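idk why but the lab printer keeps eating my pages so im just putting this in chat instead. protein + iron/sulfur cluster:
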Amino acid sequence: MARGMSGEAAVGLCARCVHARAVRAARSTFWLCTRSREVPALPKYPRLPVAHCREFSPGKIHDPG
Ligand code: SF4
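predcted complex ->
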C-alpha cells in the first residue's frame, strides 16, 4: 500500500469493486481480486492503489480498514 495514504484512497478502485475481497491479516489487509480467476492478466493481489482497471465493476463498498 502506498505510504502516506489511508482508507479508500490507499486501495483505489478495489474498495468499491464487486470482485474484491479484503483479506485481513494480523498487521495488514490484502486485497484479493476474485476476477483474476477468470482473467489471468489480472494479478491475484493487485498492487495498490488501483487507479485503472478494465474489469472494475462498481457496486460494493468495502471497509478499507
Ligand atoms: S477487477 Fe480490478 S478493481 Fe476489481 S478487484 Fe480486481 S483489480 Fe480491483
